[in-house]
Amino acid sequence: MPDTPPPASVPPLPSLAAQAEHLIGLGVHEIAGIPAEGIRAFAAAAAGRADGALLAVHPDHAPASTLAPLLRRDGKPGFVVTDMPDVDHFTPCEVELPDTPLYLVTGVDRGDHMANWSPDEALPALARDDRTPLLLTEGIHWVLQQPAALERNRCFMTIGSRLRKANGTLDARTPAIWISNGTGRDGTERRNAPKVGWCWWRNRHTWLGFASATGRGH
Question: Where exactly are the structural domains of the chain?
């Protein structure tokens, strides 16, 4: 595998109660059609048995296109690149989700040690470590709750979300979350904004790790 930079630490996530209040403050409960008290109750029930976990809304209830604009960096909202209008068609692949509107993601890691690997190289390595790649929506939830998870030259791919074509094969694009340089179609006004985009399955990027988790539950 290619040489990779040493990993950097990401601050721990807020408590589940604090995460619930943040989602409510952003209006995610309205997007998902879940009562605010339902999110609070879920977080309260999980407190103490899932410390350090990420509170996530199932992508069927809150797709990536609705979550990305809630991201903020330097006061600028997140966005999805213009050539990814099908972002919400990237669905779980190699990942089994609980059949519930809300669930917990445990052991979230940015995968800095796999920077400059291709998705094709990273996926089997994650499996050998008993880890599964994050979905795009889970990655967005992570940055919503812990903005420090996204920093220049240490961003990440979310290859748990893939687009399956009509013929059953997988699209070669793989979603990622990084920081815009304000070039090209992004527009200069979006420089430093959080960005949802895509990369090719067999390409490597020195500034993209592979976010993953140890498990999901409710």
Answer: 16-217
